[in-house]
Amino acid sequence: MRTPLSRRAVLAAASAAAASAMLPRRSFAATKAKIKIGLLLPYSGTYASLGNNITDAMKLAASEKKNRLGGREIEWVAVDDESDPAKAPANVNKLVVGEKVDILTGPVHSGVAMAMMQIVRQEKTLTIVTNAGAQPITGSLCSPNVFRTSFSNWQTSYPCAGVMLKDGRKKAVGMFWNYSFGQESMSAFREGFTKGGGTIVKEIPVPFPTTEFQANLSEIASLKPDAVFVFFAGAGAAKFIKDYAAAGLMEKIPLYGSGFLTEGVLGAAGPAANGIKTTLHYADALDTPANKKFREAFKKATSREADVYAVAGYDTIHLLAQALDKVKGDTSAEKDLIAALEAARTESPRGPFRFGKTHNPIQNVYVRLVKGGREEVLGLAQKEADDPAFGCAMAT
Ligand code: BEZ
């Protein structure tokens, strides 16, 4: 398996997109043309490892399906979105208008996803969101042609409040990257925490993707809360964990968060991560045949450990395979394809998975604790968690 995508490959995809913009729109023909899957993912910057794991897990799942979906050979077209919302309209257009992909997948960054939504709702491109947790995707901007195989940020942050309160921590500081995902994550945590009788002493937004945390850590030390709730992910999360421990805070003020804080970064963070408690819809230690099989296969294919990002990529292809088999690969049968996806089920490495009415996953959320450099599963924070789907007409 080849990763990461080289810069040259990404540029080649971009110029190919420009050239093919002149061609007529693709349509499914009886000849069973290749099925074009677009990947709008970060292959550079702080979220690069997330984009690479999603991509490689999608390719792993595809190889289990002999690289065919609904009888059609897969053609991948990848664009490095650089986790940059300002570049998102051009990047989405490269794939949707230029490459005329049959199905668009990605992105990681919620801000990129918000820009993407405007285009795919208009173009009616079948889109599978493989990470970004922004609420509006399956809330106020929900759309029949958009599905999400990852999570909404409410699902991963709200349950953390209950876990913290159960541990007897009543006064919390929140700290997060200040863009849509971090803001919504903080808001979901605040909702649960204050409802349960907790008090938020201070909220500290940090510009994305800044990793200069020192001044904020000094402030936290002086505020002396019972605990801290944070959202950081990828390389930035590893840096935060190490800084928090180096500031001597880990023993004094317990650290909590949605599971992105520790996901995929335990190697880089090292012993500093021990003791962090998080909530997430996946844990590498889940003791199920599906998870063991997946983790072994991913390790064999990439020489890396799988994580929650890889799980979403893997499930995306298996769910698409089921739906596309039902319509015999005919992506122009839009209504039937959407209905087939709505009915798709998978015994995911994360546990049972099905789409809810708004096309967001209904899935278990686990409580996890880092111990001895490993993520232990302490139990369920929420069984079959659905999303509140704020403002989605499809929810009624
Ligand atoms: C987001 O922007 O939605 C996101 C990024 C990284 C991890 C989790 C969520």
CA-based shape: globular
Q: What value does the Rg take, in angstroms? A: 20 Å
Integer count of domains: 2
**Main beta sheet strand tally, sense and closure:** 9 strands, mixed
Specify the CATH class of the largest domain: Alpha Beta
> What ligands can be seen in this structure?
benzoic acid
| Global mean pLDDT | 93
Q: Separation of termini?
A: 43 Å
CATH architecture of the largest domain: 3-Layer(aba) Sandwich
Order of helices and strands: HEHEEHEHEEHEHEHEHEHEHHHEEEE
Which range does the strand content fall in?
A: 15-25%
Structural class comes to alpha/beta
Quick overview:
By secondary structure, the chain is α/β, with parallel strands linked by helices.
How would you characterize the overall build of this protein?
This protein is α/β, with parallel strands linked by helices. Residues 1-25 have low confidence and may be disordered. Strand 13 and strand 14 (361-371) form a beta hairpin. It is globular. The chain has two domains: 30-151 and 287-355, Rossmann fold (3-Layer(aba) Sandwich), CATH 3.40.50.2300; 154-280, 3-Layer(aba) Sandwich (Rossmann fold), CATH 3.40.50.2300. The chain has helices at residues 7-20, 48-64, 88-98, 110-123, 153-166, 180-195, 214-223, 234-246, 266-269, 289-302, 308-326, 334-343; strands at 35-41, 68-69, 72-80, 103-105, 126-129, 146-148, 171-177, 199-206, 227-231, 255-258, 277-280, 345-348, 351-355, 361-371, 374-385. Helix 1 crosses helix 3 and helix 5 packs parallel to helix 6 (180-195). The chain has twelve helices and 15 strands. 54% of the residues are buried. The N and C termini lie far apart (43 Å). The longest helix is centred in the last third of the chain and has 19 residues, at 308-326. 39% of the residues lie in helices and 22% in strands. Benzoic acid (BEZ) is lined by residues 108-110, 131-134, 181, 233, 260.
